[in-house]
Every structure is written in C-alpha cells, then in structure tokens.
# Entry
Amino acid sequence: METISSYMSSDHHRCDNLFAQAESAASDEDWGAMATDLQAFLDAMHQHFAMEEDVLFPAFEERTGMSMGPTQVMKMEHRQMRELFDAMVAALQQRNRDEFLGQAETLLVMMQQHNMKEEQILYQMADRMLSGEIEDVLQRMRAAAA
# Structure
C-alpha cells in the first residue's frame, strides 16, 4: 500500500528535479529555457503546496487536534518559499542571472531543510495518525494537484 510518506517524498524529488533544470538553464544564461523550466518548477511547487495545505494538513490537524504544531511551521516555510519564488521571477524578468542564482541558492537550502522535516517527521506522523484513511487522503491530494 502506498503511504503519504512515499507519495509526498516522491513528489519532493519531482519538484527537486524541475528546480535543478531551471537552475541549470540559469547557469547557462539560457533565458528561454530558464523561463520555461522555472514555470514548470513553480507549477509543481504550487501543486505540492495545494496537496499539503488543502488536504493533508487539515486532515492531520483534525485527527490530532494540533493546529499550532508542525503543520503551522510548514505553512510558514511555504510562505517564505513563495517569497523566494517571486524574487526569482523578478530576477528572471530583469535577466539578472546572479540575483536569480542567489535566490535559487537560498531556496535550495530552505527546501532541503523543509523536505527533511516533512519526510522524517510530519509525513511519518501523518501515516500513523491517518492510517485508516490514507487511500482517501491520497486520492484527495491527487485531485487537489490536478
């Protein structure tokens, strides 16, 4: 049976790969590829955040009664990442490679730390707390990402 941990960790890898493509295009100063690859990455991240914020986090909070716990930290980090997304888009529009790569480096560190917390703590807690409804939660997350 697929778990929340396996499904969401796999989605982290998908987003990471798209990010690496955008970063590579920026390094090469291929502005067309950079715009396309950045948009693909941003779309994937917005889908990922929707799965978490619209489905997983509310289900976890309802089951545990913890609305100010780990999900609150993850939401705060999502807001911080969205600010970096905006800064990267602005740098792309200005064709400022160094600014783009600087923002990308900050985002990379943040994503690595964020993903580790989700994969090693939150998703595993969700698998335990939502054990009787994992299939339903996964189905609703897939629909939220569509």
